[in-house]
Amino acid sequence: MLFDSSLPYRSDAGAYFAAIRDLPWAAWLDSGGCGRYDVLVAQPVATLSTRNGETLVCAGELRESTDQDPLQLVREQLGEVAASQPNIPFAGGALGYWGYDLARNFHHFPATARDEEHLPQMAVGIYDWAVVIDHQERRARLVSRQRHARTATVLPQILQRLHRSATNVPAINHFQVSGHIETNLNPSSYRRAFDAIQRFLREGDCYQVNLAQRFAAKASGDAFAAYLELRRLSPAPFSAFLDWPQLQVLCASPELFLQVREGRVETRPIKGTRARSTDGAEDAKRAHALQQHSKDRAENLMIVDLLRNDLSKNCATGSVRTPGLFEVESFSNVHHLVSTVEGKLRPGCHALDLLRDCFPGGSITGAPKQRAMEIIEQLEPQRRGIYCGAIGYVGYDGDMEVNIAIRTLVYSNHEIRCWAGGGIVADSQCEDEYQETWDKASAMLEVLRRFGGELEG
């Protein structure tokens, strides 16, 4: 039976999140003022953390380690599929991140890039309640399917916290970035990697490879203040803040990886970027140039074809189609070229089957995916970790929404890191591609600068 209790509507979910973020494994899926729903959760009934092929499942007093397929373990925790509820995207289920390096469980490629973060490749909570804020209907509610016995005793306590938040918003703690913000690819090392990719392209290994650079700085304190600054500077429809043990993830992603609603599937890959201008006429000119540029359209179409193939593995024959191609979407710092691919899940297929067979997203690997990932592993000095994986949820009802974890900062072990990359094809220019990574990283780097970080040069 669905528990559904109304709350005062707030356009900014930050106060509601502040009321629960001291609870374990708190998370905020944030539409950034650009989308319909915000989802807030905490206090999971179980957690699953995967490292090097082993998944630790913690549920109450139970702690069990297993080498089973991590996504199958999540599915088992979700249990029997429940009926969807109208206008409630998530009323309990799995929520968290599936890092890029989780792909090592599904794809075989050499382990040459250094793992300097030592974070789980997957970290997911099974949540039995959620705060859902509907910005279209201007409605907020606490919802739960009450699949676990103790949830009934927890819900009144959560309601009390949320109602109290109207007059008692917890203070934001101090956060400090120290010293230089360092990159793992300077112009000369980026050039060497770029030239290597060009050789692979000429030799026919692949058609496109995504190359990313990483930025890192020392930091201390609570990064929630930095997240609030990030969402102010760079609002995005698939943002998230994960406040987990020894880890905080600050995400301002503009990109939908996969959405499943009652069996209907959608993916919206981004491929093609231009920096925005403060001059209105110049800004419009850049957006138009992006939409018409043959190189960007060709890159985008390569990824659309890859994703059509990925979706077809779990979608009904003939259901995969492309209703939107080469549409410009504008964000605070950049214009993006976006396409839309849709399909219908085959009977017997679960959203997690779709996630497995599409993972990681083709827009952040290149094509063909397997070979592109091998080249990325060879050329990028460190593993990507959470970056370019997915953040989002899979509900008890089988619905799913996960982003591509780009424009993402990861804070752990007194260091904060972020990444930016782009797709390289045969007619790419090294200087343009390198500059594009800086354009994409600009809001994240500005956040680090405002909290004390220093950019070299």
Overview features:
457 residues, alpha+beta, Anthranilate synthase, 13-stranded mixed β-sheet, twelve-stranded antiparallel β-sheet, 10 helices, 25 strands, 28% helix, globular
Short précis:
The protein is an alpha+beta fold and 457 residues long.
Walk me through this protein's architecture.
- The protein has ten helices and 25 strands.
- It is an alpha+beta fold.
- It has a single domain (3-455), classed as Anthranilate synthase (4-Layer Sandwich).
- The strands form two sheets. Strands 1, 2, 3, 9, 10, 11, 12, 13, 14, 20, 23, 24 and 25 form a 13-stranded mixed beta sheet that branches. Strands 4, 5, 6, 7, 8, 15, 16, 17, 18, 19, 21 and 22 form a twelve-stranded antiparallel beta sheet that branches.
- Strand 23 (408-412) and strand 24 (415-424) form a beta hairpin.
- Helix 5 packs across helix 10 (430-450).
- The longest helix has 21 residues, at 430-450.
- The N and C termini lie far apart (59 Å).
Furnish the topology, listing elements before pairings.
Layout: E1 3-7, H1 14-20, E2 26-30, E3 37-41, E4 46-51, E5 54-59, E6 62-66, H2 70-78, E7 93-98, E8 122-127, E9 130-134, E10 139-144, H3 151-164, E11 175-183, H4 187-202, E12 208-221, H5 224-233, E13 238-244, E14 247-253, E15 256-261, E16 264-267, E17 270-275, H6 280-292, H7 294-312, E18 321-330, E19 334-344, H8 351-358, E20 366-367, H9 369-379, E21 390-395, E22 400-403, E23 408-412, E24 415-424, H10 430-450, E25 454-455
Parallel strand pairs: 11-25
Antiparallel strand pairs: 1-10, 2-3, 2-13, 3-9, 4-5, 4-8, 5-6, 7-8, 7-21, 9-10, 11-12, 12-20, 12-24, 13-14, 14-23, 15-16, 15-22, 16-19, 17-19, 18-19, 21-22, 23-24
